[in-house]
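Question: Send over one sample?
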Amino acid sequence: MATPKKKSNDPKTTGHSWDGIEEFDNPLPRWWLWVFYLCILWSVVYWVLYPAWPMVSGATSGVLGYSSRADVEVEIADADAANQVWYDRLMSTDLDAIAADPELERFAVNAGAAVFRAQCSQCHGAGADGLRAGSGFPNLLDDEWMWGGTMDDIVTTVTYGIRNTDFPDARYSEMPSFGRDELLTPDEIDQVVNHVLAISGQAHDAALATAGVDVFDLNCASCHGADGSGDTFVGAPALNNAIWLYGGSEADIRASVNNAHFGIMPGFTNRLNPAQIRAVGAYVHQLGGGQ
């Protein structure tokens, strides 16, 4: 390919040539150069005035000593001070009287929702529905409560937890493993399982369910009630409805009778302050089934 002739009025070139194409050595626009120089100057000034250069265990602090972290800490402290007025009010109000104060209840529910999402949703689900049916994590949206659904009951449960070894006041009960420990024969287990299926309105073997009445009365009624309605004093769930903590199918019920369950909930006394516990109690209480 022939190299094009250079015109006499063309600017100087850089001397580079690609396939006969040469690069003009045009100067950068003066305004662009001044902006570039100003940016360099600004960066040097910024390095001097503000934190800029990372070090081994921190960063240069700058002449002004500015800290975005300190600003956030101040904002958090201001928010905490503003909220403390409401927390003090929450602590000085009887649990049963919180719902009668619309402003206080609104604050408690919103504050409790934040606590719930951070501390409780991992087990009970973000929507407090217990993650899924039969998971062993109680659904907090209904009106079935193993340990009671009053504000005082809920706050006590959150404070000390259930069946943990950290707090002497933790809620505690333990169902026997009727099959594993051979407290009932396989035939008796068949009978009591069908009786539970019957009182919960499910398909069952009528003859086995009838025989299971006596087995249930002798072994289960002391905790679950003669009619299977449960007892919040000992944390025994109702068996005569369609709400199940570990599943309500025949196989699930048989597994519960054979091996029992021993769900544990931590106490939150060491994680939350008393006002936060009251707030999360108010949040859970208003979800749909507070007594």
Observations:
- The mean pLDDT is 92.
- The first strand starts at residue 13 and ends at 18.
- The CA atoms of residues 45 and 120 lie 48 Å apart.
- The beta strands are 13-18, 21-24.
